[in-house]
């Protein structure tokens, strides 16, 4: 069994999730949550809160690997810098715990989880809830973290096929949000 920690870093809300990949290829949701920081608090305090929160998650759940979202391009330089600092706090924390870190971009995660690299955040949230058999849709940041953990679980389960698809990127012909696409993804994931 491989225990995967998914981390969606943010300076105000850092989502995290723990997913188990069993030897038979099935995935199990273990836990998820969000590390929240008050917007009015200084950045340094928020970074300390992120690091302490992730350290507690790692100590409690003992994951073997961390799947984290890569930095993406932002039109606002200040936002990109603050996000980079939040990612840095998260990276240092999991690295200090001895975890290997794999990184995926937002489109790669959407492609791995939904079968479409340009799926909406809501589509990802609902599909994650379905795939993990969650009683309700998780909060957006936690849901993104579950999706990150699932994306890596799918790569581990079928490394050659998934890695090739992630490298190739989303199909230009796929229709966003179609019912047929959802059914195909659910069938491929063994849910239906």
Q: State the helix count.
A: 7
CATH homology superfamily name: Ribonuclease H-like superfamily/Ribonuclease H
SS-based class = alpha/beta
Amino-to-carboxy terminus distance = 23 Å
Task: List the uncertain runs.
Answer: none
How would you spell out the order of helices and strands?
Answer: EEEHEHEHHHHH
Rounded radius of gyration (Å): 16 Å
> What topology, given as strand order, has the largest sheet?
3-2-1-4-5
Q: How many domains in all?
A: 1
> What is the beta-strand fraction?
15-25%
Under CATH, the topology can be stated as Nucleotidyltransferase, domain 5
Instruction: Tell the overall outline.
Output: globular
Features:
51% helix, 19% strand, Nucleotidyltransferase, domain 5, single chain, 7 helices, 5-stranded mixed β-sheet, alpha/beta, 192 residues
In short:
The chain is of the alpha/beta class and 192 residues long.
Polypeptide structure, described:
The structure is a single chain. The protein has 192 residues and is of the alpha/beta class. The chain has one domain (2-188): Nucleotidyltransferase, domain 5. It is 51% helix and 19% strand. It has helices at residues 43-61, 77-96, 106-114, 121-131, 140-157, 159-168, 179-188; strands at residues 2-8, 13-21, 27-36, 65-69, 100-104. A 5-stranded mixed sheet has the order 3-2-1-4-5, with helices on both faces. Helix 1 (43-61) packs parallel to helix 2 (77-96), helix 4 (121-131) packs across helix 5 and helix 5 crosses helix 6 (159-168). The longest helix is centred in the middle third of the chain and has 20 residues, at 77-96. The mean pLDDT is 84.
């Amino acid at each position: 069994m491989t225990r995967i920690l998914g981390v969606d870093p943010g300076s105000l809300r850092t989502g995290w999730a723990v997913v188990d990949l069993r030897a038979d290829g099935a995935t199990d949701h273990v836990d998820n949550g969000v590390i929240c920081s008050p917007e009015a608090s200084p950045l340094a305090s928020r970074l300390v809160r992120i690091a302490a929160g992730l350290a507690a998650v790692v100590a409690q759940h003992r994951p073997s690997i961390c799947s984290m979202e890569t930095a993406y391009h932002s039109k606002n330089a200040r936002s990109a810098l603050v996000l980079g600092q939040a990612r840095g706090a998260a990276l240092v924390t999991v690295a200090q715990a001895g975890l290997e870190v794999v990184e995926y971009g937002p489109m790669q995660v959407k492609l791995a989880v939904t079968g479409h690299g340009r799926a909406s955040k809501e589509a990802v949230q609902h599909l994650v809830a379905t795939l993990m058999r969650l009683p309700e849709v998780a909060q957006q940041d936690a849901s993104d973290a579950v999706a990150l953990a699932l994306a890596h679980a799918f790569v581990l389960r079928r490394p050659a096929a998934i890695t090739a698809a992630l490298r190739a990127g989303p199909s230009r012909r796929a229709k966003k949000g179609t019912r047929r696409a959802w059914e195909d993804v659910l069938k491929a994931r063994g849910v239906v």
